[in-house]
Design a protein that fits this description.
The complex is a heterotrimer of chains A (321), B (261) and C (317). Chain A has 321 residues and is α/β, with parallel strands linked by helices. Helices cover 32% and strands 21% of the residues of chain A. Chain A has three domains: 161 residues, 3-Layer(aba) Sandwich (Rossmann fold), CATH 3.40.50; 69 residues, no CATH class; 76 residues, no CATH class. Chain A contains twelve helices and 13 strands. In chain A, strands 7-8-9-3-10-11-13-12 form an eight-stranded mixed beta sheet, sandwiched between helices. In chain A, strands 1, 2, 4, 5 and 6 form a five-stranded antiparallel beta sheet that branches. In chain A, strand 1 and strand 2 form a beta hairpin. In chain A, helix 4 packs across helix 6. The longest helix of chain A has 17 residues. Chain A is globular. With 261 residues, chain B is mostly helical. Helices cover 73% and strands 0% of the residues of chain B. Chain B is built from nine helices and no strands. In chain B, helix 1 crosses helix 2, helix 2 runs parallel beside helix 5 and helix 2 packs antiparallel against helix 7. Chain B is elongated and about 75 Å long. Chain C has a domain of 77 residues. Chain C is built from twelve helices and twelve strands. Chain C has an eight-stranded mixed beta sheet with strand order 6-7-8-3-9-10-12-11, with helices on both faces. In chain C, a hairpin with a 2-residue loop joins strand 1 and strand 2. The longest helix of chain C has 18 residues. Chain C is globular and about 65 Å long. About 4% of the residues of chain C have low confidence. The chains are: A alpha/beta (321), B mainly alpha (261), C alpha/beta (317). At the A-C interface, helix 7 and helix 10 of A face helix 7, helix 8, helix 9 and helix 10 of C.
Chain lengths: 321, 261, 317
């Protein structure tokens, strides 16, 4: 089965910026598969997703060898083709629930509007049933309410419900659970997993929440400062990380397995960004080549990692869990 | 563009309001009846009026009166309005109700009608029209500042300051009022333009400046009678008035579009 | 040992558009000197209201608040400043908590000025000292908030809170708005500050893992009620209240209560009588909606508000 989304060497450069926002990222998402891009703010993870969806505006220069969606050329799609893609094949969930709704229209009207008129009735019922599935009660009343009538958590869930309309093949979700309570989050994750199976829904998840990632994603890409530093299956990356940054990330997050009341691992920056590896000035095992030469992504069966010392990292740095 | 405007404004203020004699070519009050109603020439840039006085010099000296008064009016109206509006917004409750009812009463009248009525009843002179316009203009500031205070009051940094133990006066002084200053300055800049129109309007109607003052409204009013055979008398000062008012209004508009705190 | 801050049977109701919200229902909480009490709950649980009450910014409808044994009401009436000096806040949004028109140095000195401590030169020195204590160099003294990052600004807020040597810090979601790598740094700063200065912390958060890492004891809140209070390890290893179990299982943290039914999320239907969690609780019986909910001590160091807790613990289910 062909992958639903194929990205080959995507690069994003903001005009006037000294460094690229996204240096070079390639990945594939198969049917029913969930790929997570993980990183902190400024890593380029959101930019990658927004660039894919062509939502960045003219100030961003996007280039790639190829981007295909459902075997169709997505990179060179015309605006009307893009609109069709966005409506039929892709569902999107953005990060800030309050900012992404038009305050002047009801949530129902906004979600249904992109669809052809003859489908509106059907879509309306579909939306109501999805809203119920994501846990919004009295959905038939909520659908005609305005965004300000709903709480942030509800708007987030409504956005997810709206993204599922029309049976998309790919869900692009940027921090979909950040505004939600932990109990709602758990429910939503199980819903998304069900849908992945039932509807063969694939997902591109952007998140810094490793707990959510571990529950729902099968593959992970770790980004730092616009570069891909590590990729692999979720299990490999989270249980046996190879890149010092990934190790740092996992070590700095409090978890039940860690001793309490003990300082968490943090990597302090030792200077300004170098010309070589972007992580060099924070890396505890950086050596001279790290500051001068950009490491390339070396791949093997288990995944890939961009680090000059990738073979030694697991012995040199202890992952603190 | 904004810098050009600010430079122009400052030039206007500096020269005409502070030291008009530097530009004026003649004594604005000097009579020369033989040379009455002369068209513009190299000697008299704007020509002469019905008493032979140099119109250009009268315009320059009148600027001090007109613009100077407008600025004073706006300053005091803004000051009074800010004090009242901030108090209403901060204290709320009864104080807010009473103060805002007073504001409502003032705002219920069309401003020119109210200004005319006040100016006429206080007395027919410059002072009374200045006072009348201050009274007409302060409520707008009060309402605006009150609205601002109501919203700033709920900001996190105000809550943080109160939690730290800061008293009301300090909060108003350091946290609330500084955040209203931008809106007040923008409004004040625009208002210098609008107040100038109102002020010259009152003088035009005979309620403000009295002869022989070179105040612009009065000047243009006097020019009424000679429109047919002395076009320069009303048109040139009129153009200056329009130009000056426009500068203030455009600058104010520019400032209002700026983002950021 | 008498508690530093004690909230005793607090009730607070807010009026809203179509009725009212019971933000606090019969809440009883204690924070002891030098300890970290974590307060966990989801949105709408009432934890921020507790923060505001503890800061003296919100009144209560009924119940008593005692600080070092004295009634808070009386303290605020007689000498509000002295209470505020001992209890200081750290809020969620680092940038919004600072006056954008004033420098960092000014903001850190504000508590000193307000409480009349020191004079101009000594205040400035103290502010610089505080900056360095929170890990920022003195060059930040003259900067403005918009020139600094979220993590740096939260350090500033902590510095400001420590300026007058408080006995208790109220941290309301103090790390929730920070990026994941910065969170660790600020958590470490809180740990260091707490251990070095012996200041007590009321640490409010929705993030269980963070709360676990930093707290000595944890109180779990749901819809205005305190469901459970116990030592941190006890809460995580042996949660008693059904909501605590549900929370932990939802966070995939523990293996307890994994089979709880979390499917019904009707947040609007929080009943006025009885236990507010009853509509969502698998252990609920009729008695849960009709009996008066009482927060009681069920073993040393553990309090629970659950009508059927004894049956549940015995495994009657």
């Amino acid at each position: 089965m062909n992958p639903i989304l194929r990205v080959d060497s995507l690069q994003v450069h903001y005009r006037g910026a000294p460094r690229p926002a996204v240096a070079d990222i390639s990945f594939e998402i198969g049917q029913s598969e969930c790929l997570a891009i993980v990183g902190e703010s400024g890593s380029g993870k959101t930019t990658t997703a927004m660039a894919l969806l062509r939502l960045l505006g003219p100030v961003a220069e996007i280039s790639a060898n190829a981007i295909t969606l459902a075997d169709q050329d997505f990179l060179n799609a015309t605006p009307s083709e893009l609109r069709a893609f966005r409506r039929d094949l892709i569902g999107t969930v953005f990060q800030d629930p309050t900012a992404n709704w038009n305050p002047a229209r009801t949530i129902g009207a906004q979600v249904i509007q992109p669809f052809p008129r003859e489908e509106h009735e059907e879509r309306r019922n579909e939306f109501i049933s999805y809203m119920e599935r994501v846990g919004i009660d009295r959905a038939n009343l909520r659908i005609d309410q305005y965004p300000h009538n709903l709480s942030g958590g509800m708007l987030q869930r409504a956005m997810i419900a709206g993204a599922l309309l029309g049976d998309p093949r790919l869900l692009v979700a940027d921090e979909p659970t950040s505004a939600l309570d932990v109990t709602v989050q758990a429910d939503l994750i199980s819903l998304l997993k069900d849908l992945a199976e039932e509807r063969k829904l694939s997902m591109l998840l952007i998140s810094h929440n490793l707990a959510v990632v571990s529950q729902i994603a099968s593959k992970v890409i770790v980004m730092y400062s616009g570069h891909v530093v590590e990729t692999g299956t979720t299990e490999q990356v989270l249980n046996d990380p190879k890149h010092p940054y990934t190790i740092n990330l996992i070590s700095s997050i409090p978890s039940t397995k860690k001793a309490r009341k003990v300082p968490l691992y943090t990597a302090i920056s030792k200077g300004s960004a170098s010309h070589g590896c972007p992580y060099a000035n924070r890396c505890p095992i950086a050596i001279d080549p790290c500051h001068s030469t950009m490491p390339t992504l070396t791949s093997d069966i288990s995944g890939s990692v961009a680090c000059h010392r990738h073979e030694e990292t697991s012995t040199l740095i202890e992952v603190q869990r | 563009m904004k810098r050009i405007l600010i430079a122009l404004v400052l030039a206007i203020i500096a020269i005409t309001v502070v030291a008009p004699s530097l530009i004026a070519t003649h004594d604005p009050f000097a009579l020369d009846v033989i040379n009455r109603l002369q068209p513009p020439s190299t000697e008299h840039l704007f020509g002469t009026d019905e008493a032979g006085r140099d119109i250009f010099s009268r315009v320059v000296h009148g600027a001090r009166i007109t613009i100077g008064s407008s600025m004073a009016i706006v300053f005091f109206a803004a000051l009074l309005g800010t004090l009242i509006g901030a108090s209403a917004g901060w204290f709320g409750g009864r104080i807010d109700s009473y103060l805002m009812r007073v504001v409502d009463v003032f705002l219920a009248f069309p401003y020119l009608v109210l200004a005319m009525a006040l100016a006429a009843s206080i007395g027919r002179n410059m002072g009374s029209s200045i006072l009348a316009l201050i009274l007409v203009w302060w409520p707008g500031y009060a309402r605006m500042v009150r609205g601002q205070v109501l919203s700033i009051k709920n900001e996190l940094f105000v809550k943080a300051s109160r939690a730290i133990g800061t008293g009301n006066a300090r909060i108003l002084r350091w946290h609330i009022v500084p955040h209203t200053s931008r809106a007040v300055i923008v409004r004040a800049t625009l208002d210098i333009g609008y107040v100038t129109i109102a002020l010259t309007g009152l003088s035009f109607l005979g309620l403000g400046a009295q002869n022989p003052s070179p105040e612009w409204g009065l000047l243009i009013s006097n020019a009424k009678a000679y429109v047919l055979f002395g076009w320069w008398y009303s048109v040139l000062p009129g153009l200056v008035l329009v130009g000056v008012v426009s500068i203030f209004v455009v600058l104010g508009d520019r400032l209002s579009k700026e983002k950021g705190r | 040992m008498s508690a530093l801050l004690k909230l005793d049977h607090i009730n607070k109701t807010f009026a809203i558009k179509n009725g009212e919200v019971k933000a606090c229902r019969d809440v009883t909480l204690e924070i002891n000197a030098g300890e970290v009490l974590g307060l966990v709950g989801e949105s709408g649980s009432g934890k921020s209201t507790i923060a505001n009450i503890a800061l003296g910014l919100e009144s209560v409808d009924s119940g008593e608040i005692l600080f070092e044994g004295d009634s808070l009401k009386k303290l605020l009436h007689d000498d509000p400043r002295s209470y505020r000096r001992k209890v200081q806040p750290v809020f969620q949004q680092p940038l919004l908590a600072l006056n954008s028109r004033r420098t960092i140095g000014w903001s850190i000195q504000e508590p000193l000025v307000v409480h009349g401590i020191g004079e101009r030169s000594s205040r400035k020195e103290r502010a610089v000292e505080l900056l360095e204590q929170v890990g920022l160099g003195r060059e930040y003294f003259d900067r403005y908030p918009h020139q600094m990052s979220g993590g740096q600004l939260q350090r500033v807020n902590i510095a400001r809170a420590l300026a007058v040597n408080p006995r208790l810090l109220i941290c309301d979601e103090a790390v929730s708005a920070l990026d994941v790598s910065v969170q660790a740094q600020i958590i470490n700063l809180f740990l260091e500050v707490q251990q070095r200065l012996g200041v007590a912390l009321l640490f409010i958060s929705h993030d269980l893992e963070v709360v676990r890492h930093i707290s000595d004891r944890i109180a779990v809140m749901y819809a205005g009620t305190i469901c459970e209070i116990a030592e941190t390890d006890e809460i995580f290893n042996h949660p008693a209240h059904p909501y605590t179990r549900a929370l932990l299982s939802a966070s995939s943290l523990s293996r307890h209560g994994a089979s709880l039914d979390l499917a019904k999320f009707r947040k609007e239907e929080v009943p006025n009588e009885g236990c507010p969690f009853a509509p969502r609780c698998t252990f609920a019986r009729e008695t849960c909606s009709t009996s008066k909910l009482v927060q009681e001590v069920i073993s040393t160091g553990r309090e629970v508000s659950c009508v059927r807790i004894n049956e549940i613990l015995e495994g009657v289910g």
